[in-house]
Amino acid sequence: MKIKALIYQEANKFEISELTLDEMKDEDIKVKTIISAISPGTERWVLKGKHIGTKFPCVPGYHRIGIIEKVGKNVKNFKEGDIVYGIDNRWKENIYRMWGAHVSHSVGNWKNYWFISSKIPDNFELETIVFTQLSAVATRGIKALEVKSREKIAIIGAGFLGLCACQLSIYRNAVPILIDKDPERVEFGKKFTQFSFLIDDKEIDEKLKEIAPEGFDHLYDTVGDPNTTDKLVQITKFRGKILLQAQYFDKEKCAIDLDQIKIREITIKTTIGIDTIDFYETLDYIKKRILKISEMITHRFTSEELTKGFEILRDGKPFNLGILFWWK
Q1: Coil vs helix vs strand at 235
Q2: Which of 51, 120, 214, 251 has the fewest Cβ atoms nearer than 10 Å?
Q3: Which pTM value belongs to this model?
Q4: Which of 251, 180, 263 is CA-nearest to residue 215?
Q5: Containing domain of residue 79, as a range?
Q6: Does 169 share its domain with 211?
Q7: Distance, CA of 235 to CA of 242 (rounded, Å)
Q8: Is 100 exposed, middle or buried, given 0-12, 13-18 or 19+ CB atoms closer than 10 A?
């Protein structure tokens, strides 16, 4: 069976092409895609060829919801017609998976999918829950920091991940501060918190000192810019915590002031990926509107318009956060 896919041929180049779906095995499910979405950080790094392990040509993406069309004889807990979240897939061409969400159909092991529903949710629900995996990274991060009521958390990066971390901090009655270098993102961040600042603001030091005179309880890094991280280490309180959750590919530039961390006895934490508990906790946050995902969706396209969405990802313009694709 021929399927449609968005393929990165090489760095900064992509096209819509066809792949040949592999034959089903007894543990497989065949899934038809309903909706997929871009993870703007990871997929941009892959597109630039800078993500560790990137190989071209490849199919990117890990946000995808589909409907099961067929189940293998050894499949448990799933049936035809179930709505599932996942990306496990195989095709016959020598095209790599960088995780492979943007395809019309897939064949893969049922254990690598999360159950969503026994019937198709409405469009609003589909548009919001398709971003569950990226949002769950914020859930994992906030849990790792053990954010508590009234604590103050400085979040570097007002992108999709940073905005989710901001909302989850507020849910815990903490005080989040968003910091970014992009004026449009800083302005957009004000929809979620009264404290959203440009890192290049000449009065940034005074503003942060006024909010947290004794320093911030937590520093949450989603960007990986060493200058910004080092600057904010200076205002992290004694025995505070820092979460490193960005991409740190440039070894020559990803230095962090270890002396200041030692002097303040700061705890460094890291996370990578999510687990099933993170996923379903986050799905619940989205369904209960604790995470306001719909407000972060900036672009919607059909599967025929895949390249338009990836042009925005590549160029960074116009302003974008959540980009999704409806598949026929």
Answers
A1: coil
A2: 251
A3: 0.95
A4: 263
A5: 2-120+293-326
A6: yes
A7: 11
A8: buried
